[in-house]
Amino acid sequence: MTDVTDAHGTLTIDALARRVGMTARNIRAHQSRGLVPPPHLRGRTGYYGPEHVVRLELIRDLQEQGFNLGSIKRLLANDRSESVGDALDFTRALTAPFGDERPRQVEASEFMSRWGDELTPEVVERIRELGLVRDLDDGRFEVRSPRLERASEELAELGVPLAVAVDITETLQQHAESVAATFVDLFLEQIWHPFEAAGEPQDEWPRVREALERLRPLAGESLLSVFGIAMTDAVEQALERELARLGERDAGAA
User: Fold this and answer.
1) How far apart are alpha carbons 127 and 121 in whole angstroms?
2) Are residues 149 and 67 located together in one domain of the fold?
3) Single residue among 94, 122, 138 that ends a domain in this structure
């Protein structure tokens, strides 16, 4: 069936559905929730114009960015397209991958053969539970952090079994989750909640976005700096303990 339009170029609901990549049922559901204005009636037929196309495409984009329909309705209730656009831009920045690393996809057979007998079913399950690797269900795996994979390979070259490397990764992940939660709470308490309490003023959106963009690398740099200090102190303390142990051993031998 081809798109049906009237002389003014407005669309029937079926044509509109094809235009925006939704079903007619979805469109009617959005109308019933007050997300989309009603059609223009001509006789007993409803026709939809460019404003309906724009609204439905915006709803689709917001859903793809993780907004639920309740949040979308509140955004659209502002009746300011710039506010919705700012919210959408902010959400895209918020959900952007952290840093410049991108996951890589690898054939499952290649991934399994790389580790050989070390990749036991128990280790595979732990890797999946930690979210380090995703099964794409098409004979491929997605390795979420190629850097972490390379680190495991280098540890293997040093004689560290894969199961031990997974143990180390799990410990690191637990600490990293705590650090991540700390910075997220910082952003919410110091920036987002005051902004929200002020009614999300239009002229403040750029400041909020800038704060988010600056906070993301700052979190990584701060973590790396603190880890560097902690690692130095840990090595020095371990060295002192070993020297003391050797001294005690030598004294006992004498």
Assistant:
1) 10
2) no
3) 94
User: Do residues 88 and 151 both lie within one domain?
Assistant: no
Angle among Cα 5, 16, 2 to the nearest 5 degrees reads 55
Number of domains in the chain: 2
Q: What is the pTM of this model?
A: 0.59
Terminal-to-terminal C-alpha distance of the chain:
98
Structural domain that includes position 119: 104-253
State the DSSP H helix or E strand holding residue 206, giving kind and residue range, or none if neither: helix 205-253
Q: CA separation (Å) from 215 to 168, 173, 187, 195, 224?
A: 27, 20, 8, 16, 14
Q: Report yes or no on 226 lying in a domain.
A: yes
- CA distances for 152 relative to 146, 176, 236, angstroms: 10, 18, 25
Look at 254 and 118; give whichever has higher pLDDT: 118
Together in a domain, 67 and 183: no
Q: Per-residue b/e over 48-71, b at no fewer than 16 CB within 10 Å?
A: beeebeebbebbebbeebebeeee
Tell me the pLDDT tens digit for each residue of 122-166: 898 898 888 888 888 778 888 888 888 899 899 999 999 999 999
Identify how many contiguous H helices and E strands the chain contains and give both numbers. 11, 5
**DSSP string over 103-152:** -EEEEHHHHHHHHGGG--HHHHHHHHHTTSEEE-SSSEEEES-HHHHHHH
User: Is residue 70 in a domain?
Assistant: yes
For residues 67 and 189, membership in a common domain is answered with: no
